[in-house]
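Q: What would this complex look like in 3D?
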Amino acid sequence: GNSVTQMEGPVTLSEEAFLTINCTYTATGYPSLFWYVQYPGEGLQLLLKATKADDKGSNKGFEATYRKETTSFHLEKGSVQVSDSAVYFCALSPMEYGNKLVFGAGTILRVKS
Amino acid sequence: KAGVTQTPRYLIKTRGQQVTLSCSPISGHRSVSWYQQTPGQGLQFLFEYFSETQRNKGNFPGRFSGRQFSNSRSEMNVSTLELGDSALYLCASSPGLAGSEQYFGPGTRLTVT
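A: Here is my prediction, written as structure tokens for the whole assembly.
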């Protein structure tokens, strides 16, 4: 079946530290991969996406590369800010299921000033 | 473009009652998906509608149903509410192509007492 595994949190970093949140997936076929972010009391915001192997998605300093050989889509940012504190979700969309998203459990990120 | 809107934002219901939630997608988007978010189960896919037809369905009991209108607006209905139905219900819209990115609304917070 289709599933997403994320590193457990919370992850606590100091401002300007380097961020990595690991994400691995299991899927049949070639899914699209996404990172979403959720701020307290809000819905999910699309952070970045990749649709095929070796694609790199990037947005607001965040990056993730679709690695088919390791079935991974790790999220990175070179220098985090307090405003990046949120919950981050890795997700896949199995191409044969229309627009269904399968989510990981989410990783809480806390950035201290 | 206006984003995805959901009404109402908050709702309190009693066990055994039924509830209807509404979602208006981004203009031009033909696909609407619904998700349930709870602390214990995380984000789970309920169903997807595309051009007024249910294209995809998750593993939820028949008490959960939905529909889509010709203007792409969607409603979901939960009958015979149970305490475990308390959750944040998120609606997402997409242009419609399989695997394309989805844009989420702010959610409806349902509390069942």
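A: To summarize the key features: The longest strand of chain A covers residues 86-93. Chain A is about 0% helix and 50% strand.
Q: Very helpful, thank you.
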